[in-house]
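User: I need a structural model of RING-type E3 ubiquitin transferase from Stylosanthes scabra for a docking pre-check later this week. Nothing fancy, just the predicted structure tokens so I can convert them on my end. Input:
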Amino acid sequence: MPFNPSKRLRHSLLDTKLVSFKVVDVSSDQYFENTVSLGGITSIGILGDGSDFTHPYPCSFTKRPGLSLLKIAFEGVYLQSNENGKEHLMCLLGNTTLPVPAPEPFNCNGHLLDYTLLQDDQILLVLRYPQTFNLTSRVVRGEMQSLKQEGSLGYFDNVNISSQLNHHSSYQFSSELKSRSCDLYPYQQELTTYGAKLFDSACGFCCFLRQVTQQPFDILQNYNERHVASKLGPFQLGKEFSSNWTHENIRLLFQNHMCEEEASTNNVQSARVSAVLRAFPASLPIYSWQERTGLPDLTLFAEGTWNSLTRKLCMTGCVNSVLEECNYQISLHFPNVFSIKQRSVVLGSIYSITNETNTPFLPLLFDFLRSPSDLKSLGLYDNPHYNYSKVELAAANKKKNQPSKLFTFIKKLFLKYPTLMDGLDLHAQLNFLSNKLNVQEISFRHQSSSNQNSRVYMQMQVLSLDTSYQHETTEPEEKNLINISLHMSLSERYWGELEGDEVVSPYFLEGVYDPLAGDMHLIGCRKVSSNNNSSVEHGLDCLVEVKVQYSSESTRWLKNPSLEMTITSQRSEEDELHFKPITLKTPIISYNEHERDYYASRKIFEGILRLLISLSAVGIIWSQLQYMNRNEGYIPYMSLGTLSLLMFGYGADLIRTSEILIGSEVHGYEQALLEALQTSTRFLVLVSLLLTVKQYQKVSEVKKKPKAYYLVPAMLMINLKMQDFFLIPQVIENKVWSSQGRPLRKTYYFGLTLLRLVTYFYDYIRDPLMYSGDIVINNQVGSEFSSIYDIMKKHCSSYLSLASKLSPDANRGIRIKTEFSFSNGDWEQEGDHATLMSFEGHGFPSKLVSFKVMDISSVHQFENTVSLGGIMSIGISDGSYGAFPTSSYLPFIIRPGLSFLKISFEGVYLESNDHENGKEHLLCLLGNTTLPISKPFIDDWNDHYLEYSLLQDDQILLVLRYPQSFNLTSRAVNQEGSLAYFDNVHISSQLNVYSMYQFSSELKSRSCDLHPYEQDLTAYGSKSFKSSFDFCHSLRGVSRRPFDILQDHKDRHDASKLGPFQLGKESNSAWTNGNYRLVFHNLICDEEINSNNLHSARVSAVLRAFPASMDALTERARTGLSGMTLSVEGRWESSTKKLCMIGCVGVVDSESEVCNSLISLHFPNLFSIEQRSLMKGSISSISNETNMFFLPLFFDSQWSPMDLKSLMSLKDIPYYNYSKVELASAIRKKNQPSKSLSLSKKPFFKLNGYPNKLDILKQ
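Assistant: Understood. Predicted structure tokens for RING-type E3 ubiquitin transferase:
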């Protein structure tokens, strides 16, 4: 078969040849003696991009970059043979459409094909299965060959197939291997220091082994001897592998694992184990190898025994089917103790036990290293035994770097850090503290160079905690230290983005944790490649010091819970393994099991602080007013400018929305308390304003000045944010008048100044409010808006100026979430200079976009707006991977057949009344994502050719416009906006079912005549529906499936036009009968009954034309309005028995739709040999303009009788007009045999005596 490798993947190893065979039918008839007739399906192909081989591709042959797949149907016989020992054998003959080279490439559906399809029924397949399933007898072999003459079209060379018996076959363990001894390899003698895990029973061992073998093993570098690059233990590396392999780019997988318990002997438990060991490149995902059954040179058959006495599993390995050549020993050791240098639950080796010079190889070592959370999820270790060897050194480092005792005393007196929880048993306390200390957050590197990414993803998990160890110290506070071991990984890429052989080397940490100071002092070991250094043992550099400082839980009212880490190398700068100190800090971590309480308590504290400040301000102003009443002589010397500034300051506090509640994160009692605090604070601010106004009136009456004299400069100063300097006008007047009195009390000017300083000081020292892992709105006490809304104000100002006043609506949040989310809309870019994403695929790729409103805030950031957040999923798909992955957790996916990007947005909702666009709902949003951008040069990365690099982008503007009325010509959702460094993206969707559709009264009375070519439809009658309900029910049933577009043979059609639909450049330039279909979606059928008891129904829908090669369900789910869609609305009446609709072509980014199409739907009441359609329809032009006219487009809906019965509420036997029965009877009479032969035949079936003769006959 032809195969085109993907442009994104270059390694030839990725071109995997796979084959599957499935028996689908077994016949009870025996065509040959001692055989069984059967049929099966073979899927054979080449994969080069990790595609899903089991995906149900509809065609017999599928070819796209990175995938070629051929399906062959076989029929034949099964028999048992004595050849090659006893074996099962299948001999089958196949039939398929075989791809053969084309003389020259030709265009098919917009793609240049270099092959044609040839029907071939001359394919022979012979499969041989061993009758015995054991260590050396498990291989399924087959050969597929062409029966055509060599050199003829469709001939191919013989194909050899290999697989193995599956779990449905009964495995027979070998008695000869049971007594073989299994000694540790000399280099593994040190494993005995880690002990051996004790299992309760053979069943417990089998469960443990089953859990471990679910994941691949890592191959270790053998540091004792230099490995040979072309050899991988017993595995034979082919030419497809790199000439130099390393332990990091090959992994080991246990497959077909079987563990059988044996009866205990002398209280010794034992189990027999069988498996297939498969080596595979780490650059490929594990799922693409777990289901493989072929047995190439990268597999090893293994069988052996475990017993409770030795506590180890020893197996013999074979690379072929000859027992005498099973010269390999596999030893698996299960350590019972962890340490800073040993973190694996399984340590294994494969080595040769033969003395021949051509077969020995260096031992292959492997282990099973996983994070603590993975071990717990697998049920392997909950509280493992750990040998602490570095805690004294870590404690010494802590003592050396200890601050002053006074500082330590104050810190421990006022600050509280994560510690053991009282009231629980010790095991529960340790688990509780471990969960608090675990960290998986984004951190930022301090002092990173320009070519380094400052963002680092940190994952630190506690492996063990121990409080029983007594440190050698006389200091009482050091006796509270807790021994701790951790597993840490650092990466510059998000964990979900890691793929292939990208290895994140872990740090093994061990040391002490001080719960009174919240810090850890640790010694770390990291994996390194160099082994030339004498201080490197088993590839571990353990001269690393790590210090971790947690933030206090007592200061959450001021600081976000965070973590700061410093990693330092203890080596000299001349050492090749030395690295510069690394300092990492997380914006926030979550070590509180009640994280929501943190947000609520933070907001409540701020609310109380505002209330106290406002209450203090009222008291200070009231005392000044009393002072003025007692000292009226000082009143003329008071400055009106000072009072004006204070008045406008309090007024601004009342009208602006600086207080930000957290919406969905605060509920119930906390929300009610916050609202009460905010209401009380605003009331006190109002009191302060009224008291200040009273002061202003007193001063202006005494000075006999116009009250508006100081308003203009005061407003200017307000705009310049000078209200904090309210004392400046008073100071100036004091200098001018040289007054010896004191017009202002010290309590007044000192008090108000102090309150302003408290507010700003708190804003300065406190952290912005965040969610764990996500920075949200910056909620400062005195700030008007957060930084994200400052940016939004700049880019959305033109829309904010058009915002209409929002009417009171308690359900507005729910409506925004439901009505303004859409899925499977269309998108296009203005140009091709800077594309949003690259794509590689075949067929008719669809550009789809979905948007979902995720969160609504109860606070209005801007006047007449609602703050909200949402997620957009945008991409290109050719349908190879099924549904569009809107729920993917990855920020982007780029692979052949699919390009996908997820963007998080925050912004505002408003209602505008623009004179150009009329009334509409509008969303203005600012987005953030990890954007794949093209590069001038293609990088060789992880054996891939990557044409993009990753860039964090928070400069994406999205504007969505929704019409306020939902009707025939007002249903489209459109987008506009400027998007960073890529061309503008235009989005089109439509309002969903949660919006109320408004039928047009203007279209109600339009007539609908049949097209002249449809006059013959009257011969089939028109179906009479009992009611409008029956009509709507039938219409919904018919519209479930796509309609076939028919070619009009009475009038020559224009191949470049498809009725009113606008064929784009991506579609075929010429359409023919059968290569386009029509689907109805968003169907609305509104039943009506008039005063004369006549039934009618108003109907609205969207008709979408699409290539027949596309999946109908996918097209039905799309919501975009383009040149391939027709928005229709019309009316059915029981008197006319027909449905007539007006259609408008909806074009992406068009300002108005062209409603010049007439859609007529006829429901025939009779079937005939020439008419089998449930519904016949036409789309014709009602415009006289030359450029708008098009030839009629006809379509119908034909279903099988079975579908009619199961999906439609029709009678079992429809009305049928028999017109050919006389001719059929004449043919039967002409071919009738002799009368004597007819009389000798028994009736095939008698209908007499059965209650329902017609049902019996049909069955």
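Before docking, keep this in mind: The longest strand covers residues 918-941.
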